[in-house]
Every structure is written in structure tokens, then in C-alpha cells.
């Protein structure tokens, strides 16, 4: 772990891996919520690929000294809200992704929809989340030639991540499907549907054999509760 002060009231924590960043993000959130120690007064906590930014820090030195004594446990995979996102697996790059995985297109759908994803961090555009969940053998490269315009609602994969484009924009990820879910709505609180820590399952609207279908509207639930209207987790 490396700590870098940013201005007078922020601290950037650099970690060795995305998994470490997720673990530190979860631990800082937990201790702030519990009102424990110097992190209890941190105003905002922003995870990245291998970083966690603490913003609005009253005493940067005290927070840094406290963090240096921590050994966060790995994040618990089944905690946090679960959001089911209906997907039409009709993307123009689905065939290429299936070829890279060495499977049929139907099997590629089963692979992608058969695992639970988690929002690691957000960026690129408002409402765009970087979701982990695919194992290393299913990581794929970006397209050699990025598209000048990717439609809103496109479900895409690149490297270790899955993402959903909240609005039309240029992009170089492999497009495997589409969804009608609204990812960014300024009339909603929070505006982003996908926030760090949210668990996500992509469920085919028209599934291949052996894969359950899902209604068009998304559902979110926790392990302790029955299906309920969409609610957001902590960011």
C-alpha cells in the first residue's frame, strides 16, 4: 500500500491489485459507517481500479497513520444489494467473444449470465460501472478499432470487466448485448444505478436452452429479502 496526499484534504491510497482496492474500499466504508477512528469524518470515498481516494479528510496524517495499521479482509462476495439486469444478447461482437472463449454463442451467453458480477468502481461516463466477475480465461481485449458511436444500453466486455454504456458515446469494448435499464437518471437518488459494491446478474430476456429468462424490468434484492423495487447500495 502506498499513500499519496492530494492537496490539503484528500488522500490517495494505491494498492497492488483490483482485489486489494475492493477490500480496502469495503473496509473504509465499514469503519466510517461504524464511526470508528479518524476515517469516520471522511466526506467521500471513491474507489478506482487499484486505488481508493479519500476526500474531505480533516487530518490527512492521522488518517494515513490509521490506515497503515489495517489489514483488511477480502470483501464478502454475497453482501450488498443484488440487481438483476435483463439483457438481449444480440451484440455485434458476441460471435467474436465466443470465438475468443472457444465456445458457441449460446455457451458464451451462459458463461456471462451464469456468474455474479460486482461493481468495482465507476468512471468514463456518468453511470458507467466497471464490473468484475468473469474469470481470467474469459478476459478479452478491446477492439482493435474503436467505434465512433456505441448505442446507449450496450452491454460490453473488455479485459476483466463488463460495462453497460449509459448513453451513446465512442467506445472500444466488445459489444455482446443490449438492455433497456436506465443507468443514469438525475431525478433518481442516487442518479447512478450501478454504484461500487452492487452485485449484478445479467439475465437473458430470450435465453439459450437451459438459461432462465427474466421480465424486462430489473429487480434488486438482498439475501434476506424477497424481490423488491430497485434500491441502491452504498458508494
Task: Explain this structure.
By secondary structure, the protein is an alpha+beta fold. The chain folds into two domains: 2-67, Gyrase A, domain 2 (2-Layer Sandwich); 82-221, Beta Barrel (Cyclophilin), CATH 2.40.100.10. Helix content is 17%, strand content 28%. It contains four helices and 14 strands. It has a five-stranded mixed β-sheet with strand order 7-6-13-5-14. α3 packs across α4 (105-113). The two termini are 22 Å apart. Residues 215-235 have low confidence and may be disordered.
Could you give a short description of this structure?
By secondary structure, this protein is α+β, with helices and mostly antiparallel strands. The protein contains 4 helices and 14 strands.
- Percent of sequence in beta strands: 25-35%
Computed over alpha carbons, the radius of gyration is 19 Å
| Structure class | alpha+beta
Helical amount among residues, as a percent range?
10-25%
- Report mean pLDDT, rounded to a whole number: 87
The termini sit apart by 22 Å
Number of domains: 2
Identify the CATH architecture of the largest domain.
Beta Barrel
What is the approximate shape?
Answer: elongated
